[in-house]
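note to self: dont lose this again. the chain is below, predicted strucutre after it. 314 aa total, dont forget to put it in the shared folder this time
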Amino acid sequence: MPLNEESRHKKFFKFLQYIKKHRRYCTNELAEELGTSPKTITRYHKKLKELFGVEFVTISRGCYAIKDVSIFKDFLFDGVPDRESQLVFDLLAMIHPKVLSYFGFSPKEVERLLQDNESVYLIKESPFEDLVNSQILEQLKEAIKEQYYSDILYHPHNRLVYEDVKPLRIVYAEGNWYLAVLTQDEINNGFKFLRINFIKKIQLKPKKFRRDSTALYFLQTFQSLFSAYNQYPRSVLVEVDEEVARYFRVKKFLASQRIVKDQGKLTIQYTITNDEEILFLAKRWMPHMHILEPKHLQEELEECVREFLRRGHG
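---
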C-alpha cells in the first residue's frame, strides 16, 4: 500500500488517541500536529459522532470538548499500540470490509488491504451478519439518537406488531445484529432483543421518551442474549472435566465466569439472571460440564437429554 494511503487511516487512529487522552481539541492545531487539513479533522469529528455517539461542545471558536467523558471508559483501541491497531484494520478488511468506510477508507484502499492480506489470512466465513435493509437501519439510528417512540412490524416466523416501543441501542451479539428495545410486553419486563433483519417496518412517532438508566445499565452489563432484564442475579456452580478444562482457563464463556477450584477438573462459578444462560452453555459442553448447584438445573439438563433421545428414537 502506498505510504500516503496507509497514513490516512493511521491519522484517524491518532485522532482517536488524541481525543481519548486530551478530551478536547482545536481544529487548526490538531490538523497541524497530525499533518493533515482542518477539513479532514472536521470530517473525523463527524465520523466519531456517527460511529461511537460521541458528543462535543464548543468551548471557543474552532475548539471542542467531549460532552460526556465516561463514553471513553471502554473506548475502541484503548491502550493499543500502532502495530496492533494495524492488525485490527487488517482483520476488519478480511471479515467485514464495509466497516472500514467509517474509518475514512476508500473502496480502492480496502481492496488494496485485501490484496495485501490474502496471502496471510484465510477467513472461511464472516462472523458478521449482513444487514439487508439499510433504510430501516437509518430509521433505527434516528429513533435511538432522537429518542422517538416507535411502532415496529416484526416478522421472525409470525407477524408481530410492537407499538410505542423505546429503541435503545443497536447491538451486535453472537454473530447477529439486534435492536434492544423496551416494549409494553410483560415478558422479561418488556425488554427484548429484536433481530434487525426481521424488522420489516418501523414508524417513528413524534413523541419522545426519556432515557431509561436501568435499561442502559443492563445493556452495559448483560452477558448473553438469555440474560433477564431487571432480575436479581444468582450464583451457579459447575464442574468441568479435565479433558476440556484448558479452554475455560483461557476464555470466559460468560462474563461472570470465575474459577474457584482447579485440581485438573475445574469448579466454576457463574452469576446468572436466567436459567437458560447456564443451560445453553452446559448443552454446548455436554458431556464435559456438570451443574453442581442448584441441583434442579442439572436435573433439567438431564431431562432435556432424555427428551432428545426419545424424539430421536420415536
